[in-house]
Design brief:
Blueprint (H helix, E strand, L loop, with lengths): L3 E5 L5 E6 H7 L3 E9 L5 E6 L10 E2 L2 E3 L7 H13 L6 E11 L5 E12 L11 E7 L1 H10 L6 H8 L1 H6 L2
Parallel strand pairs: 3-8
Antiparallel strand pairs: 1-2, 3-6, 4-5, 4-9, 7-8
Length: 172
């Protein structure tokens, strides 16, 4: 089944839909979300994307990320994908959004209005091996150091999220 993404303008107003892979081939701006879950020690839960993903396979990234389906509220989409990818049932909270464009592997382009959600989780994820290869909790300062040393090991959007001023305010 072909999945569609919500195309948006620069103000995040929905202007249509497009098949997901086509939107990434053409670099068309669309709505997405990224979730960062933190444990009670302030460590962020990372996932390593499964190697068979349509892009950025084998790279470390935020806890969960995806696209809302057409007519699906963002809050519902975040809960759906957290459960599907990480086996985690919780409702993350919206934090901020930003637009970015990045060239990816396989000739694809990520051009997204990314809504960043955060939450707290102290458990053990039950990962979906089709989506996620591995996971770990890591301290933010160590993460920032490792991203500088090994930028090729992380997704393009996650590197932007980690350095975003809004996140820096939240997790100093």
């Amino acid at each position: 089944m072909m999945e569609h993404v919500i195309l948006v303008d620069q103000d995040d107003n929905a202007i249509g839909t497009m098949e997901k892979l086509e939107a990434h081939r053409k670099g068309i701006l669309h709505r997405a979300f990224s979730i960062l879950l933190f444990n009670s020690k302030g460590e962020v839960l990372l996932q390593k994307r499964a190697p068979n993903k349509y892009h950025s396979g084998g790279l470390w990234t935020n806890t969960c990320c995806s696209h809302p389906l057409p007519d699906e509220p963002l809050e519902q989409a975040t809960q759906r994908k957290l459960k599907q990818e990480m086996g985690i049932e919780l409702k993350p909270t919206f934090s901020y959004k930003f637009i970015y464009k990045a060239d990816l592997d396989k000739g694809l382009v990520e051009h997204e209005c990314d809504h960043v959600f955060i939450g707290t989780f102290d458990g053990t994820p039950m990962i979906n091996r089709e989506e996620v290869e591995d996971w770990k909790f890591t301290e933010m300062n160590s993460l920032r150091v490792d991203i500088k040393k090994n930028p090729q090991a992380y997704t393009s959007w996650f590197k932007l999220i980690v350095e975003h001023p809004q996140l820096t305010k939240i997790v100093a």
